[in-house]
Backbone:
């Protein structure tokens, strides 16, 4: 296949997944050309290293674009980039791809608008990967409005989490072939947009997230941005219910922290006598070591669409105790690779205690987790799934 890839992603899990996809496709003798606006993050896991070519299109800064954006888009999120100028650049990218002989186009989400403007202008058969629609659940709004968060920063924070819904809805209306990461997300896409989608599960790089045979240490690990929706407050309150003589330290690894929320969690942990350490922006090697050293990974985000963290933990042979909502129900196998619980602090604490006090059960889950990942959730398994969908779209377009 000759494939054009578009993205305007920041660093993080989505970029890691895209890097894995491009690497897989290139290794299997497909031509993969990547096209990005200059706003895309190409420092984190650069695609130039795994693709046939990387083509960067500069996003201009025009007065007309700034005025147009101010009155049409009304988005305080972007201070240095005009959405109008961003749209013009994505139109230019689409027209460049349209002028070339590609079999299929693979488009990722946009860090500013969710569904990218690019979808409006691309004419080749295109697959759009939508990891989640806008998340406006009442529980998330109530969490982000916590009194411990500075109101002004909360406004900016909420704006970053809730992109302009009209832009997103308009752009995704041009998507004819949508892939997503879980059946939970597929249902959300149908509910929010009224659009059909197909599930193409992600995978992890098992050469990185692997079992290291290092001694366990007395801590539990949680990974994700330090914000209310990740459920760390719930985890701290749950750990406080565990007997002090076996209560583990909580280590949080974060790629982003809302300062007020971080301070609140630190104060809460002191009040409840839970030892807490928050690490930020550590490298992959350190993260993998922590996954291996932790007795458990604890996972309690609110309505997380998929979540790579449980898979990364399982790849390292570490059992997961998680709240059974969102995508975790499709990855962690209850009583085999971890435990599911209700969002109840007592039940969550009991599940953690059960595994902390049973080395034999943890060891059994360790083996099961590694086997489960190797059997279905690897980088190559995910690449095979994506390839099938790309071919499906190409074949469907040939029949038109």
Residues:
């Amino acid at each position: 296949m000759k494939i054009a890839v578009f993205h305007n992603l920041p660093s993080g899990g989505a970029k890691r997944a895209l890097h894995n996809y491009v690497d897989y496709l290139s290794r299997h003798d497909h031509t993969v050309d990547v096209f990005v606006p200059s706003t895309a993050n190409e420092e984190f896991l650069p695609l130039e290293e795994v693709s046939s070519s990387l083509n960067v299109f500069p996003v201009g800064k025009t007065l007309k674009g700034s005025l147009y954006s101010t009155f049409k888009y009304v988005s305080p999120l972007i201070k240095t980039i005009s959405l109008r100028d961003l749209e013009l650049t994505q139109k230019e990218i689409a027209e460049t791809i349209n002028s070339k002989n590609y079999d299929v186009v693979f488009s990722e989400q946009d860090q500013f608008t969710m569904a990218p403007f690019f979808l409006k202008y691309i004419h080749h058969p295109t697959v759009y990967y939508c990891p989640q629609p806008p998340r406006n659940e009442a529980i998330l709004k109530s969490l982000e409005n916590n009194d411990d968060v500075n109101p002004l920063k909360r406004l900016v924070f909420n704006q970053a989490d809730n992109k302009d819904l009209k832009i997103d809805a308009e752009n995704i209306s041009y998507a004819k072939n949508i892939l997503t990461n879980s059946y939970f997300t597929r249902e959300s896409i149908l509910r929010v947009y009224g659009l059909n989608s197909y599930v193409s599960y992600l995978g992890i790089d098992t050469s990185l997230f692997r079992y290291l045979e290092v001694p366990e240490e007395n801590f539990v690990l949680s990974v994700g941005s330090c914000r209310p929706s990740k459920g760390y407050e719930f985890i701290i309150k749950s750990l406080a219910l565990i007997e002090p003589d076996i209560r583990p330290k909580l280590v949080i690894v974060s790629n982003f922290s809302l300062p007020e929320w971080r301070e609140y969690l630190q104060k809460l942990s002191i009040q409840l006598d839970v030892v807490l350490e928050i690490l930020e922006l550590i490298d992959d090697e350190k993260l993998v070591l922590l996954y291996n050293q932790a007795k458990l990974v604890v996972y309690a985000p609110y309505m997380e669409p998929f979540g790579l963290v449980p898979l990364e933990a399982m790849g390292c042979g570490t059992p997961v105790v998680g709240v059974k909502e969102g995508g975790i129900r499709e990855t962690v196998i209850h009583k085999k690779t971890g435990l599911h619980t209700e969002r109840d602090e007592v039940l969550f604490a009991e599940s953690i205690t059960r595994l902390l006090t049973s080395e034999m059960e943890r060891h059994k889950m360790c083996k099961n987790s590694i086997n489960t990942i190797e059997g279905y959730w690897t980088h190559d398994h995910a690449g095979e799934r994506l390839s099938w969908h790309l071919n499906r779209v190409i074949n469907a377009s040939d029949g038109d």
